[in-house]
Design goal:
single chain; alpha/beta; Rossmann fold; Glucose Oxidase, domain 1; 2 domains; 7-stranded mixed sheet; 6-stranded mixed sheet; 22% strand
C-alpha cells in the first residue's frame, strides 16, 4: 500500500448534499488519519438546510475557505446535489491559485460540475476519485455485500498513489473489438447527468479531441441513452477521440424493457458515432474506483481487451 511521501494536509468539506449523520464523517476522519493524512474538517461540514449542507452562502464560503487555505488535498464529504447552485458565484481564480499551490481537489458525482467548471474557466487539473463519507466512512457490509470491507483496497491504494504523485496510469478490461486503438487528448467527464447539466452554460468545457469518461447512478438505461443521445446530437461525442463508460449502478429494470438493456443503449450509440465507446472503467457510484486526473493530457491504448490510460 502506497503512502504519502510526507504528512499531507487533507481538508474535508461539504459543497453539496447534507450529511444525515456525523458517524460516517467520524469514521472517514479516523481512517484517513490512519493512512497518514493530517485531516481537518471544515467548520460547516455538518450544517443542514433542507437537503443541502447549509444554504448557498454557507457552502460557497466553505468552498472558498478551503481554496484559500490550499491544503494538499480538498476532499468532498459527499455528493448529492448543490454545487450547481453555486457555479455562477464561485471565485474560479481563487480555486485556480489553490491548484497552483498544490491542492488536489478530489471527488465524483456532484463534484463533476466543479471539476468541469474549473477546466472551463482556468484549465486547472482536478481528480475524479473517492469522497470522505462514501468511500472512507462506510461500515462493513454496506453496498449489500456481507463480507465487504469498509474501505475498498483498490480505491484506497489508487487514491494514495494519486495523491503522492506516483500514479501514472490506470488499466481495465473492455469488450472485444477495440484492439490497437490509440487515442491522445484531454481527459474529462464524470457523472453523466452533471456533465449534461452544463451544456449551453458558461461552465461547459469546450473539449475537442478528448477522452470523455462517464458514469451514473439510479438511472435506467433508457435515461442513460437519452443523456448520451443529447451529447451525440450536440456534437460532443463526435468531437472526442474516445468515450469511456464506467459504472451505471443501482437502477431498476422495467417490465416494459422487453430485452432492452444498457448494452442495447450502448450498441445504439455506437451505431450513430464513429467515436469508439469503451466500457469497463472501474469508476462511479461503486466501492471500487480508480482516480482520474480531470483536465490532464492522457494516452489511451488498447491491446486485445486490455485498456491503459496513462498521463
Amino acid at each position: 500500500m502506497a503512502a504519502p511521501h510526507s504528512l499531507a494536509t487533507l481538508d474535508i468539506f461539504s459543497p453539496a448534499g447534507v450529511l444525515r449523520s456525523a458517524a460516517p464523517l467520524r469514521r472517514a476522519v479516523k481512517r484517513l488519519r490512519e493512512l497518514g493524512f493530517e485531516v481537518k474538517v471544515d467548520e460547516a461540514t455538518l450544517r443542514k438546510h433542507q437537503r443541502f449542507a447549509g444554504n448557498e452562502e454557507t457552502r460557497l464560503a466553505a468552498l472558498h475557505r478551503v481554496a484559500a487555505e490550499a491544503p494538499s488535498i480538498a476532499m468532498a464529504a459527499r455528493g448529492g446535489y448543490g454545487l450547481t447552485r453555486l457555479l455562477d458565484r464561485i471565485d474560479w481564480a481563487l480555486l485556480a491559485r489553490s491548484v497552483e499551490r498544490g491542492t488536489r481537489w478530489v471527488g465524483f458525482s456532484d463534484m463533476t460540475v466543479l471539476q468541469l467548471g474549473l477546466l472551463a474557466h482556468v484549465k486547472g487539473i482536478t481528480w475524479a476519485g473517492p469522497m470522505a463519507c462514501d468511500d472512507f466512512g462506510r461500515e462493513d457490509g454496506e453496498h449489500g455485500e456481507k463480507r465487504a470491507a469498509a474501505v475498498d483496497e483498490i480505491t484506497r491504494d489508487c487514491f494514495l498513489e494519486a495523491m503522492s504523485g506516483e500514479l501514472e496510469a490506470v488499466g481495465f478490461r473492455t469488450e472485444p473489438g477495440f484492439d490497437g486503438l490509440l487515442a491522445r487528448g484531454t481527459l474529462w467527464g464524470g457523472n453523466l447527468c452533471m456533465v449534461n447539466s452544463l451544456l449551453g452554460t458558461a461552465h461547459w468545457p469546450k473539449v475537442k479531441g478528448g477522452v470523455l469518461f462517464l458514469e451514473d447512478v439510479n438511472e435506467h438505461p433508457y435515461r442513460i441513452e437519452r443523456n448520451l443521445m443529447q451529447l451525440h446530437q450536440a456534437g460532443v461525442l463526435g468531437a472526442q477521440k474516445a468515450v469511456v463508460l464506467g459504472a451505471f449502478s443501482d437502477f431498476r429494470k422495467s417490465p416494459l424493457d422487453r430485452g432492452y438493456t444498457l448494452k442495447s443503449a450502448v450498441a445504439h450509440l455506437r451505431s450513430l458515432t464513429r467515436t469508439p465507446i469503451l466500457t469497463g472503467l472501474p469508476f462511479g457510484h461503486v466501492p471500487t474506483k480508480v482516480c482520474l486526473p480531470v483536465g490532464a493530457k492522457v494516452t489511451l491504448a488498447v491491446q486485445g481487451r486490455d485498456v491503459l490510460i496513462g498521463w
